[in-house]
């Protein structure tokens, strides 16, 4: 019997070793790398900061990084969530209203994410149910596994490849995935199952798990306790996921004995256990991770040959030189400035939600970015507008006096706009104080509208002037409902996302100088109400100039009062585009004006403000 001829031997396709430049050098698409970050025991360990910091470290190795935030709640997004419930609703370029952690990713990683980078249980279930109604499952029984878990994986795989760094062609090398909640929560179980399946699908060499554990210091001996971290790792392993790296939140640096104990009981090499102990400011977290070699370890885990690469992470003229001298050398400038700044600038934030600072996260970050560049220590005075009203003076005179003292002791004032934050009369009084005392003022969205209301009442004599949002029938509706929005459906009905603003260059307005001479800028909006265009000529005749408008000229986007040193209002939210190395112009201008340095800085920059030049000039 003649046997079959032996098949020809299989020849393995020759592929170069994976590297962050594989696509450009070899023409093939390198596999996406996924890095999942989980946490256990308690919430509030700083998982968002850890994810962002890991991304900064990976960028210093020359990698392009994207990020996805998974939230287990059933809301589609953060659009209808109360600030008291969830803090700030961050607005991305495409108009999506997402978790505030997305804002942290954008600031640290210098990327522009989309609504799809925020994944919630509500979005997943909505997609699966729509597919079921349209026959996508071909009559099969739709179950959590595989329908829901497949939908989660497909979502992440699709969005991970989307360019986020301003390039239309270059996809990210690594996708960071933050899983909200803590291990053991019932509502994240389907996401954990999906992550286990995703790891199997892409292979362990393309999937990495970092677990953020708690290592408290307890007792009179100040002993570091590893049990909370051990238990959360055990629960993670029960669902089929074994951490490759441990990030340990502790009060002090991990002791050698603690490190050895965690390595043995959690089955993680000592080299892969990172101490995330308390430090002076959050900008030192990437430096802390880099000093312990986390970036190189992750690169080697993924088989990337860029563990020795040192790339800049900030957009400064001398970033490359600083990055070549030491890893994250340019980033260290930011961390050092916060700790060494001696001169102080006091900024008052006037808002109803001052008891929950997360509501104003982006505003605070934008102020800090500006203060870092100017090399000033930022002190914030929180002022509740209710405390500025006459009724409070009658009910609690001490609280009234304290609120006014905080406002008047500030060098500059920010009036941010938050939906649902009314307290009109107290805000009007705050604006009037700034306008009549020439205190530097920045009104954002609703804050700009309050400035218009105050000006109409004081300068035009329109005592009943108000917004139709607060008083539908008033004799002088200076703020009106935006025609393109719907009053009936509250979710996703705002004029939201990146929109163009055309800046008038007549008489070289302050806005034009702040934005570097650009006549068209793109900023993010989130509002339903607008300045009534019918009253604009009357307001401008009295000295309030609307120097920024939309392309049609019917929507007022920027106002200023030229007779004052710094009185600016923006209908958009400039804080959403602020970056550590590139403070947003309105906030940078406010801090400079509050420190009495604005004119000097404009002269140094050649007449037009250049964000970032302060970091380049003084270090």
* Helicity range: 25-40%
Instruction: Give the CA-CA distance, first to last residue.
Output: 85 Å
Strand element count: 23
The total count of helices amounts to: 23
Structural class: alpha/beta
Task: Note the main sheet.
Answer: 9 strands, mixed
Low-confidence stretches: 8-28
Regarding quaternary structure, what we see is single chain
Largest beta sheet: strand ordering? 13-12-14-15-23-22-21-18-19
Radius of gyration (Å): 27 Å
Record the SSE blueprint.
Layout lengths: L21 H5 L6 E7 L7 H14 L4 E7 L11 H4 L3 E2 L5 E2 L1 H10 L8 E3 H13 L10 H17 L13 E6 L9 H14 L4 E8 L2 E2 L4 E2 L2 H12 L6 E6 L5 H11 L6 E5 L7 H7 L2 H8 L17 H7 L3 H12 L3 E7 L10 H14 L2 E7 L6 H6 L1 H13 L2 E4 L8 H14 L3 E4 L1 H14 L5 E3 L8 E6 L13 E9 L6 H5 L5 E8 L1 E3 L4 H6 L2 E6 L6 E6 L5 E4 L14 H10 L3 H7 L8 H5 L2
Parallel strand pairs: 1-6, 1-7, 2-5, 2-6, 7-10, 10-11, 12-13, 12-14, 14-15, 15-23, 16-17
Antiparallel strand pairs: 3-4, 8-9, 17-20, 18-19, 18-21, 21-22, 22-23
């Amino acid at each position: 019997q003649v046997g079959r001829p032996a098949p020809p031997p299989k020849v393995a396709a020759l592929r170069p070793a994976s590297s962050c430049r594989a696509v450009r050098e070899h023409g093939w698409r390198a596999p996406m790398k996924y890095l999942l970050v989980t946490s256990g025991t308690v919430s509030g360990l700083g998982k968002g900061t850890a994810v962002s910091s890991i991304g900064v470290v990976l960028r210093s190795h020359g990698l392009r990084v994207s990020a996805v935030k998974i939230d287990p709640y059933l809301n589609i997004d953060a659009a209808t969530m109360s600030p008291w419930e969830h803090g700030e609703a961050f607005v991305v370029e495409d108009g999506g209203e997402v978790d505030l952690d997305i804002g942290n990713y954008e600031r640290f990683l210098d990327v522009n994410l989309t609504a799809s980078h925020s994944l919630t249980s509500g979005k997943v279930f909505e997609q699966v149910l729509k597919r079921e109604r349209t026959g996508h499952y071909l009559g099969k029984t739709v179950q959590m596994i595989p329908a829901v878990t497949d939908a989660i994986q497909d979502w992440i795989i699709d969005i991970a490849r989307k360019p986020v760094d301003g390039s239309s062609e270059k996809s990210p090398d690594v996708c960071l995935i933050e899983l909200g909640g803590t291990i053991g929560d019932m509502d994240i179980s389907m996401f954990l199952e999906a992550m286990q399946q995703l790891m199997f699908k892409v292979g362990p060499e393309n999937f990495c798990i970092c677990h953020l554990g708690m290592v408290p210091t307890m007792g009179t001996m100040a002993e570091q306790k590893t049990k909370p971290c051990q238990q959360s790792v055990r629960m993670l392993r029960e669902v089929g996921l074994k951490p490759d790296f441990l990030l340990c939140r502790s009060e002090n640096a991990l002791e050698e004995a603690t490190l050895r104990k965690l390595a043995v009981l959690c089955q993680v090499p000592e080299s892969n256990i990172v101490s995330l102990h308390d430090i002076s400011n959050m900008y030192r977290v990437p430096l802390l991770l880099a000093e312990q070699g986390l970036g190189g370890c992750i690169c080697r885990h993924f088989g990337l040959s860029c563990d020795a690469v040192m790339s800049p992470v900030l957009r400064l003229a001398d970033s490359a030189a600083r990055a070549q001298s030491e890893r994250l050398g340019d980033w260290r400038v930011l961390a050092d400035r916060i700790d060494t700044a001696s001169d102080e600038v006091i900024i008052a934030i006037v808002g109803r939600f001052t008891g929950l600072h997360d509501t104003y996260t982006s505003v605070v970050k934008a102020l800090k970015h500006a203060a870092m560049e100017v090399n000033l220590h930022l002190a914030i005075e929180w002022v509740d507008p209710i405390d500025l009203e006459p009724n409070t003076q009658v009910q609690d005179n001490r609280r009234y006096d304290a609120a006014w003292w905080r406002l008047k002791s500030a060098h500059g004032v920010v009036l941010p706009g938050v939906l649902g934050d009314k307290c009109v009369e107290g805000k009007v009084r705050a604006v009037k104080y700034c306008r009549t005392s020439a205190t530097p003022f920045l009104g954002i969205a609703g804050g700009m509208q309050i400035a218009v209301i105050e000006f109409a009442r004081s300068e035009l004599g329109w005592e009943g002037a108000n917004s139709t949002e607060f008083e539908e029938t008033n004799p002088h509706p200076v703020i009106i409902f935006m025609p393109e929005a719907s009053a009936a459906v509250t979710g996703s009905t705002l004029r939201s996302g990146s929109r163009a603003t055309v800046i008038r260059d007549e008489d070289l307005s302050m806005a034009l100088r702040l934005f570097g001479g650009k006549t068209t800028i793109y900023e993010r909006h989130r509002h339903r109400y607008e300045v009534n265009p019918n009253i604009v000529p009357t307001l401008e005749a009295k000295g309030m100039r609307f120097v920024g408008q939309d392309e049609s000229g019917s929507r007022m986007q920027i106002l200023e009062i030229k007779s004052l040193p710094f009185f600016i209002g923006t209908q958009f939210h400039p804080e959403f585009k602020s970056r550590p190395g590139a403070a947003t112009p309105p906030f940078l201008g406010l801090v400079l004006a509050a420190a009495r340095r604005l004119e000097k800085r404009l002269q140094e920059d050649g007449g037009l403000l250049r964000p970032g030049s302060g970091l380049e000039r003084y270090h």
